[in-house]
Structures are given as C-alpha cells and as structure tokens.
Amino acid sequence: MIYLDNSATTGVRDEAKSAMLPFLEGGFGNPSSIHQPGHFAHAAVEHARKQLAKLLNCAPSEIYFTPCATYSNNVAILGRARAIDAQGGSKHLITSAIEHPSCLGPAKFLEGNGWDVTYLPVDSEGLVSTAALEKAIKPQTSIISLMWANNEIGSLFPIEEMSKLAADRGIFFHTDAVQVPGKLQIDLARVAADTLSLSGHKFYAPKGIGILFKRQNVNLMPIVFGGGQESALFPGTEPVANIVAIGEAAECAQKELVETEAKLRQMQKILAESLLAIQGVRMTGPRELDKRLPGHVSVVVPGIEGEAAVVQCDLKDICISSASACHKGIKQPSHVVSALQIGTNLALGSLRISAGRFNTAEDCHQAAAIITKVVASLRKTSAPVS
C-alpha cells in the first residue's frame, strides 16, 4: 500500500511509540498524585512541554496539552470571546471562508449569539492577502482567527504579516497551524500569534493529543469545567503516554525540519507534474509550489467524481482523498473547494494527494501512474462533466 493521505492523518513514528511504552506499562501514575509514580508521570509531562516549546520557540509555560486541535481551536476562540464578554468588550470576529470546521463552528456559534463575524473570501488560488485583512478590520474588531495552511488545497496564508498587523492594533490573533509542524518552521518569536493550535496525529504522534500555545498574559476563560489541569483551561486527567509521544514527535520534527521539507518538496514536484499532465486537470490552491504546503498537491479532474477515484485507487492500494462527499444522498464539494468558485460539477472531481516522511519519490511516481490510469478508466464509464 502507498499511503498519500498525510494531510488527513499520519502514522505514528517509531520514536513516539517507544517513548509511550513505559507509560502504557509500569509508569501509569496520575501526574496529579504526589507518590513516586505520580512524580514520574508529572516529570514526563513537563519534559514533553519543553520539547513542544523548543519546536515553537516559546516558553514551556505557554504550552497547554489538549485532547486535539478541535478543542484547542474552540478554547482559543470561545475562551477569548468569553473573556471579552466579561470585560464588556466589542464583538467583531474576522476569519476566512476556508477555515477548518473547528474554527468555523465557534465563529458561527458566536454569530448566533450577537457577534458580528466577517468571513474573508479567498482568491482563485485560495489565498487571503494582508491588505484584504487590513481592509476588513473595524474599530470594533476584537478577534482574528486565520489558519496558517489549508488542509484541503494547501494554500499558505502570510501569517507572520497578518499576526503583526493584529498585534500592532492590539487585536487578539489565533492561528490553526495543524498542517505546519515538521514541514515549515514555526517561530513564535517572529509570528505574533496570541494562540496557536496543533494536533499530534498530523505529525506522527497518536490521535487524541493536541496542544494550544497561549502567549503569556493573554486572557482566555475556560469553556469546559471540572478540574484544574492545564491551568483549568483543559480539565481532565492528562493522557501521559500520548503527551510523551507528541513531545518526542515534536523533538524529531525540529531536528529533521530542513531534510523533511526538502524531501516533501521533491515529492510534491513529482506529483504535481505527473497529475497536471492529465488532460484537463487543474490545480486547486496556489499554482506555485513554494506557496503551498510542502508535500501537498490538490487538483480537480473534469469528467470524474473525486470519491469514485478515491475508491478505485484504494482498490489498487493507493490511499488519497477527495474534497467532495455525498451528504444525505446529495453529492457536493467541500466549503473550501466551493470557495474557489470553479463550479460545482468541476469541484466534484477534486483529489488531494499529500506525501509524508514515510513516502519516497518512487511511491509518488507509482501512485501518479495509477491515478492517471484510474482517471482514464472513469472517464470512459462516466457521463460527461463540464
């Protein structure tokens, strides 16, 4: 099997598995307990916090462990909104039309509760400019939430410039950076984000663990209650084995960053050139690969349905994904691809191929050849799609 769906989830790397084992066997203490097993677990959690801080170039005290990035995003946006409400602040949120649902969901919740929300449109390449953000800012703007890299179309937002724009105006800035670690450098001395979210299973740690970076002196109020863990922002007994694993994955990602980015760019070029050679295929997201997430290629293929191509590729042991889906019997493209305004029929032929550190150039050549054959076969049996 050739797995090329790393934007959806990654395998767990051996270093992370090995780091977990002591905490799945004898070291099962609760980090809040004051006996020796508890001290052992607590020390492991704090070590992982330091590993994450090194990856992000921030203080360990600014790292909070969470169940996943969905929780991180919700606490960042809704927790900040609660703090603003408590202080009688103004209620204007700016986000983009192509955010992950875990950011759009809180935005829509706030909109339904009296907040003014601006959803910035994207251009034909799925990008929002700093100038467009600046134009959208009002005197009442109190929260800006923009993703660093889009999971479906690979577009990279100019987060350093955007966060500085917000900081210069005293506006809280959150970024969903889930797709970035291990692919591009994250330096929070340069990026003026107040909060930033990551998810372990996107960079070779297990599912069920994420982090929220919260800059010192930034006020968030909890939205989940019941315990004092993680400064009461994420109450609940810490999953020590998963925390240790994400710490190890972060340390490896930091050490391997230059090598991994170069490898992903090489594979991305192979995939892009091969797929764009198919008649009628168009890139979704930026055409220039250096404006895309490393290793990420997304296209639309006229004359096919994306889901059908995914299924046929799976039968040939190639794992990719599509941004179209069947919901309640109705085929429809995702909100991200729809935002590109390329037409519903064409958008239904979307494919996403995302390489990872376990892939090789040969994998990409083989997968591209099989995808090309699948497309040709589907076009012979499908009704014309314009």
Task: Please give a handful of descriptors for the protein shown.
386 residues; 14 strands; 3-stranded antiparallel beta sheet; Aspartate Aminotransferase, domain 1; 2 domains; 7-stranded mixed beta sheet; alpha/beta; globular
Give me a quick take on this structure.
With 386 residues, the chain is α/β, with parallel strands linked by helices. It has two domains: 2-7 and 256-381, Aspartate Aminotransferase, domain 1, CATH 3.90.1150.10; 14-252, Type I PLP-dependent aspartate aminotransferase-like (Major domain) (Aspartate Aminotransferase, domain 2, 3-Layer(aba) Sandwich). Helix content is 40%, strand content 15%.
Structure description:
This protein is an alpha/beta fold and 386 residues long. The protein has two domains: 2-7 and 256-381, Aspartate Aminotransferase, domain 1, CATH 3.90.1150.10; 14-252, Type I PLP-dependent aspartate aminotransferase-like (Major domain) (Aspartate Aminotransferase, domain 2), CATH 3.40.640.10. Helices cover 40% and strands 15% of the residues. It has eleven helices and 14 strands. The protein has helices at 14-24, 36-56, 69-86, 101-111, 130-136, 159-168, 240-276, 306-315, 335-338, 344-347, 361-381; strands at residues 2-3, 63-66, 92-96, 116-120, 141-145, 172-176, 195-199, 210-214, 282-283, 296-300, 318-319, 324-327, 330-333, 350-354. A seven-stranded mixed sheet has the order 2-8-7-6-5-3-4, with helices on both faces. A three-stranded antiparallel sheet has the order 9-10-14. It has a two-stranded parallel sheet with strand order 1-11. The radius of gyration is 21 Å and the shape is globular. It starts with a strand and ends in a 5-residue tail after the last helix. The mean pLDDT is 95.
